[in-house]
Specification:
By secondary structure, the protein is an alpha+beta fold. The protein is built from eight helices and five strands; from the N terminus they run ααααβαβββαααβ.
Length: 289
């Protein structure tokens, strides 16, 4: 089969069930629902939405290769796997394929990132007996960078500025939160880019006063359960749909600005001493007091 030939997709009527655990729920809320603009519950509708996400990514991968994106250009093997990357954890896999691992843009791999993050935080909750005793603090802010005033270099500078700001904000909250997940990404839009700053922190129930004045525009979810936690993780790690729907030039600029930058990290009880690559990010703040 040609690398550029559209792969045979799973048909909705060939799948009789979907996974309905909380990890799957987090993936659907974070990735599939934003792309399809709905939250489907029926099996057939969920499968249709999954196929839609796969089709959009397949088309975008070909466009990025044609545009000369360094990760795909002149590399038929990576393009082949990118255009056939499977969704896992939502619908049963009908065959086994290699993942493309373009987690910054591939909705299939991004969904696995969401699942890994949710499962990691659940393990922390269970180890520290936090379910039903804690409140989730969700902070979701954005900064808009207009394309008419921005070059690829200035977008990268704006992203770096956001990374430093988020690092400092997280540091200021360490003593006030039991654990924290933080995330930074770029969502291309029609006339520019939105740089998203996201924080999910956990505090004991009844201690909301401890964070007042330290965060702007935040919401609280009390007495956290596994279902509530799935929603919180999904909102903080919401997939930037502009990567699949915006103009290809803006998308490539967003990917280049984020290239080589760790955009997600943990503090407090969400850290795992056994994780090799998921230790708390130091954010390269040397010389910036």
């Amino acid at each position: 089969m040609s690398v550029r030939q559209k792969p045979t997709q799973t048909q909705p009527d060939t799948i009789t069930h979907i996974y309905r655990d909380y990890t799957s729920l987090a993936q659907r809320l974070a990735v599939i629902s934003p792309i399809s603009d709905r939250f489907a519950t029926k099996t057939n509708d969920v499968v249709i939405d999954v196929i839609k996400a796969q089709d959009l990514w397949h088309s975008r991968a070909l466009q990025l290769a044609d545009e000369g994106w360094s990760a795909l250009a002149e590399n038929d093997t990576r393009l082949y796997y990118a255009s056939r990357c499977p969704v896992t954890g939502i619908v049963p896999a009908t065959d086994v394929r290699r993942f493309c691992n373009f987690r910054a843009i591939c909705p299939c791999c991004y969904g696995r990132l969401v699942a890994e993050t949710y499962d990691r935080i659940v393990r922390s909750f269970e180890a520290n007996n936090l379910f039903g005793r804690t409140t989730a603090v969700e902070c979701r802010n954005s900064r808009f960078v207009a394309s008419e005033n921005a070059s690829a270099l200035s977008l990268k500078d704006a992203f770096e500025h956001g990374r430093v700001w988020l690092a400092r904000k997280v540091r200021s909250l360490r003593a006030r939160m039991l654990g924290c997940l933080y995330h930074l990404c770029i969502n291309p839009a029609e006339k520019g880019w939105y740089i998203r700053y996201r924080i999910l922190g956990i505090i004991p129930d009844g201690s909301e006063e401890s964070i007042r004045g330290h965060l702007n525009r935040y919401s609280l979810v009390g007495s956290v359960t596994k279902r509530k936690l799935a929603g919180s993780v999904a909102r903080v790690l919401r997939y930037p749909t502009g990567l699949l729907k915006a103009g290809i030039t803006a998308v490539r600029a967003a990917l280049d600005a984020q290239a080589g930058v760790q955009t997600r990290g943990y503090t407090g009880r969400f850290r795992s001493k056994h994780a090799k690559e998921q230790k708390e990010i130091e954010w390269s703040l040397a010389g910036q007091s």
